[in-house]
Amino acid sequence: MATPIHQPPASGSTLAPDDRSCANCGSQLVRRYCADCGQPAPGPADYSIRAHAAEFVDQLASVDGKIGRTLWALVARPGALTVDHLAGRRARYLRPLQLFLVVNVLLFVIAPRVPMFTYSLRSYLADAPPSPVVVASLVRRTSAATDMSAYTAAFDGRVESQRKSLIILFAPALALLFRALFARRTKRAGVPHRYGEHLVFALHLLAFIWLAVTGWGALGTLSSLAHTRTLNVLTIVLLVALFAATPIYLLRALARVYALTRIQSLAVLTALLTSFVGLVVAYRTMLFFTTYYTLN
Ligand SMILES: [Zn+2]
User: Fold this and answer.
1) Taking the complete model, does pTM exceed 0.85, yes or no?
2) Contact, 87 vs 190, CB < 8 A?
3) Measuring CA to CA, which residue among 94, 254, 118 is closest to residue 178?
4) Cα(11) to centroid of ligand 1, in Å?
5) 10 Å Cβ neighbour count for 61?
6) Percentages of the chain per state (helix, strand, coil), in multiples of 5
7) Is the separation of the CB atoms in 238 and 60 below 8 Å?
8) Per-residue pLDDT tens for 54-112?
9) Which of 23, 83, 181, 245 has its CA 20 to 30 A from that of 8?
10) Residue 62, φ and ψ in degrees, nearest 5
11) CA of 100 to the centre of ligand 1 (A)
12) Where do the structural domains in the chain lie, given as residue ranges?
């Protein structure tokens, strides 16, 4: 007796796997997850309290674990995050932009009043770029400045909110700088060459610098609050150690990512620090003008 080749499914509840398509992008599902976009197939259990709780814990653990792991790699192994990213080892860490944003939040939460990034109308009128003379004459010209104290308060509030969004411009600017510095270097596997690759390193490097600045800010606040001599000395020692460790870190990161000798990375660091001062001046100038013109 011959068995039929095409047997209908025993019950209507199961479909053959290759009959199903992803609800999100329409690709064929192989198993539970879409091979194209990664979305799991929706099911009736998705809306149970248990599923919500499991997802919550899962998200928290995966984000938390990634943040910790990425910050640790960033601090403990200079340049390694970039090397890993360019070699394709990415899923275990936050993406470069995510890391940069996380560190920015830390910077503005833990160290909101770090002098390098703190501006007010008073500081612009005293000594900050673009130029006190230009700032004074522009402020005199605005009609809003008839009530100077109200204008100052409005200006300072606006600067405060804009500096947080403008700080992101450091990354593309720094990447341009790397591209210019390494333009004549011959192409090597795993070493940043394209603009987008320099940008990954720029984001990682800035994340570290912002983290160091956060540390300086936090320690500075701590030492001003310290009432005992021992605590005061301790915070100052930590501050000095952090200041000394930062250039060493930068040298190691540069050497690792761009495969440089010690002398080469010293030369690059010098160029970098000089240009960074220029970047800060450009940032402060831009911040003044965007604040000034959006207030008028
Ligand atoms: Zn899909």
Assistant:
1) no
2) yes
3) 254
4) 27
5) 10
6) 70, 0, 25
7) no
8) 888 877 777 778 888 899 999 999 999 999 998 888 888 889 998 998 888 887 777 66
9) 23
10) -70, -40
11) 29
12) 95-295
